[in-house]
Amino acid sequence: MTVSTTEPELVTRTDNDGSVTLTMNNPKRRNALSGAMMTALKDAFDKIAKETTVRCVILAAEGPVFCAGHDLKEMNGITECDQHASLFTQCSDLMMTIVSLPQPVIARVRGMATAAGCQLVASCDLAVAANSAKFATPGVNIGLFCSTPMVALSRNIARKHAMRMLLTGDPINAETAFSMGLVSDVVGDEELEEHTNALAARIAARSGMTVRLGKQAFYKQLEMPLSQAYSYASDVMTANMQKHDAREGIGAFIEKRHPSWRHE
Fold first, then answer.
1. Cβ distance 10 to 25 under 8 Å?
2. Which of 8, 59, 156, 162 has its CA 20 to 30 A from that of 118?
3. Where is this region: Disordered (predicted)?
4. 135 near 118, Cβ under 8 Å?
5. Per-residue pLDDT tens listing for the chain (264 residues)
6. What are the extents of the domains in the chain?
7. What is the DSSP letter of 71?
8. Does the pTM exceed 0.90?
């Protein structure tokens, strides 16, 4: 296993056999999404997007808080409208980077994930939460409705669940987040790292080509009318069938052997 650093003071990177863990590393500021933190994360994801040897990404955090959302001190220190617009655009770009990343991203959540931190979890493809994790969109409590977190939240959970979180600001626990569909797994705090690593390893063991193609298709078809989605998905499967790994995987299944992926 090799360990390298993207932005030592903010984001660290650990590589492990086809998967990468990016860790937000500013616990003193509760891993808030300052401009610098968002830049560090986006730079790390942009680099990973070009690395075909990486087949899964874990997004984690140091300290007792996963992510407290935007850095309110930084936001309050900005007076110009265009500066606020630039900060929110930067946040939206980061979330879109995660969604459009070729590799699946798993959020590994311990502690609180609030506002844009909850948005960060919702933007990941999967999320594993410790029992102690909590989630909230509390902007309404300080006069700033969580409008951009609402975009990711409303695409993960039912409307009335989303509106309850947005209108009250009340936190929900990990089990409630699971029942709503905000997270995919809930485990004991002591099992969080092992469980998430095992999940990433299972994904990384699949054909990288198939996973990349499937993730892209999943998000594209979601925005289409039903008949268009089926037409598009049929085209994707047709293209998929022409790939080496599809032929290898089907052949291996028929021959009752393990496939030998080329990730192409």
1. yes
2. 8
3. 1-24
4. yes
5. 545 544 458 999 999 999 999 999 999 999 999 999 999 999 999 999 999 999 999 999 999 999 999 988 888 888 788 888 898 999 999 999 999 999 999 999 999 999 999 999 999 999 999 999 999 999 999 999 999 999 999 999 999 999 999 999 999 999 999 999 999 999 999 999 999 999 999 999 999 999 999 999 999 999 999 999 999 999 999 999 999 999 999 999 999 999 999 999
6. 2-204, 208-255
7. -
8. yes
Q: Label residue 46 exposed, middle or buried (CB < 10 Å: 0-12, 13-18, 19+).
A: exposed
Give the CA distances from residue 242 to residues 89, 239, 246, in Å, rounded to whole numbers and listed in that order: 39, 5, 7
Closest to 185 (Cα-Cα) out of 170, 200, 163? 200
- How many residues are there in the chain? 264
Structure tokens at 196: 């998430």
From the list 238, 221, 241, the residue with the least C-alpha distance to 229 is 221
Distance in angstroms (rounded) separating the CA atoms of residues 27 and 258: 43
What is 208-255's CATH topology? Lyase 2-enoyl-coa Hydratase; Chain  A, domain 2 (1.10.12)
CB 107 within 8 A of CB 132: no
